[in-house]
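Key result, reporting period 2: structure in, sequence out.
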């Protein structure tokens, strides 16, 4: 504060500029004076905005900078900066400043007293250290060493995820809106049991900071995302942390828990896996035996397009977002809408679907019933378990996993596979790319997919 006062009350550089032209009505304003006026307007805007305070060193006129880590000092710095800047402007225009200078010295003395009395910010990292020290004995009591280490690892993992999203900010600054936003962001966290195709390694072996970057860049495939139960467990850990701060940690200085008091819809936990080739063949035979056409074609399209149920329904109902087209004698569906840019794609009609008579069957729109209600009955009638040995669910979406698995085996080129699946490919620098292939190339590739 003292250094700021001395720098902005050094008027020698003002004297060097001599007389300052200031006729705003005609647009005649000295550039040096205009810069001061613009800076004053900017700092007053920050002060008025309250929370949106500048942490950019290039923002300030002065060599002195505020202490960005101390919110109280930062606010006082800006207040004094604004007052002294206004004084300099008046000095340039009127040539007088003595009365304001006396006021400035008084303001400085008050601020220095306030800074000396102010407690330093209590950061999330400091609060977490106390939280763990106070609770870890209870967490691991009666557990084997291996299990105890996993419990502590899970807690520390939750804290790392929170820190990556919120930053090491003062506890008192965390709001319910911030926690809710964090939950929404982490819906795209990957299940660590999956392998990251981009990195060529299991997610659990990738540094958490790098996984965070994958989430930010939208590089986590939908089928790799954690289920609702995992996200609810993370939310509970954060709730317990802040609840302890409210009840037990006086240094936190918070009266309410920011991790509660808002609504958030957790998605159903649905960690899905593929069907075996034998199981797919069972479904195929089952479909061909159906008397109700929609049951037959919803399954066959799932098997031989790898499309999501939503896209299959569009195809069957002649939705404008899934148009039947032809190019170079190749019939294909143009999916015109999706969650990502890559989901907008062309799906050539597999030769098996043509052989089964798809085009004739879908000459007119065909509406599907509640597939999600029917599917478990179909699976049970075939004696196919609802989960695999790892407790991964078998749902209608598992056809998509099966198609992807076979495509990876038969097509060999992952970029063509991604184009068919509606996934984003990666360039040499790791950037997302959206490749467009000739329809004949895609037709040749999709016809290679089989379940023999």
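The corresponding designed sequence is given below.
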């Amino acid at each position: 504060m003292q250094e700021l006062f001395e720098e902005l009350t050094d008027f020698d550089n003002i004297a060097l500029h001599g007389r300052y032209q200031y006729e705003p009505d005609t647009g005649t304003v000295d550039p040096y004076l205009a810069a001061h006026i613009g800076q004053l307007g900017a700092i007053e805007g920050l002060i008025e905005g309250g929370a949106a305070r500048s942490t950019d060193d290039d923002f300030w006129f002065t060599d002195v900078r505020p202490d960005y880590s101390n919110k109280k000092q930062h606010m006082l710095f800006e207040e004094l900066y604004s007052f002294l800047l206004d004084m300099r402007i008046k000095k340039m225009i009127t040539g007088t400043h003595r009365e304001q200078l006396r006021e400035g010295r008084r303001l400085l003395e008050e601020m220095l007293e306030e800074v000396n009395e102010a407690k330093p910010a209590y950061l999330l990292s400091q609060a977490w250290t106390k939280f763990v020290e106070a609770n870890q004995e209870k967490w691991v009591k009666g557990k084997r060493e291996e299990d105890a280490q996993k419990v502590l690892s899970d807690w520390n993992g939750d804290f790392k995820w929170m820190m990556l999203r919120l930053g090491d900010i003062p506890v008192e600054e965390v709001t319910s809106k911030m926690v809710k936003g964090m939950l929404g962001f982490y819906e795209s966290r990957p299940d660590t049991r999956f392998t990251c195709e981009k990195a060529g390694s299991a997610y659990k072996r990738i540094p958490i900071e790098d996984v965070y970057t994958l989430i930010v860049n939208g590089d986590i495939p939908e089928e790799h995302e954690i289920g609702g139960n995992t996200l609810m467990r993370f939310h509970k850990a954060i709730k317990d942390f802040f609840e302890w701060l409210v009840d037990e940690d006086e240094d936190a200085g918070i009266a309410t828990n920011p991790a509660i008091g808002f609504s958030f819809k957790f998605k159903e936990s649905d960690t899905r896996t593929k069907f075996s080739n034998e199981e797919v063949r069972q479904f195929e035979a089952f479909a061909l035996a159906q008397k109700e056409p929609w049951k037959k074609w919803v399954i066959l399209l799932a098997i031989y397009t790898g499309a999501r149920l939503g896209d299959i329904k569009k195809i069957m109902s002649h939705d404008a977002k899934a148009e039947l087209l032809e190019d170079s004698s190749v019939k294909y569906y143009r999916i015109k809408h999706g969650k990502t840019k890559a989901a907008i794609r062309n799906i050539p009609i597999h030769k098996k679907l043509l052989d089964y008579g798809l085009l004739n069957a879908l000459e007119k729109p065909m509406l599907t019933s509640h597939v999600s209600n029917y599917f478990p009955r179909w699976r049970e009638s075939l004696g196919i378990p609802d989960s695999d040995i790892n407790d991964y669910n078998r749902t209608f979406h598992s056809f998509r996993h099966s198609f992807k698995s076979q495509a990876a085996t038969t097509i060999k080129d992952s970029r063509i596979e991604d184009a068919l699946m509606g996934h984003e490919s990666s360039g040499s620098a790791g950037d997302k790319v959206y490749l467009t292939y000739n329809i004949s190339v895609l037709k040749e590739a999709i016809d290679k997919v089989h379940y023999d």
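The first helix runs from residue 2 to 8. Strands lie at 22-23, 28-29, 195-196, 201-202, 322-327, 330-335, 345-348, 425-426, 432-433. This case is discussed further under Risks and Mitigation.
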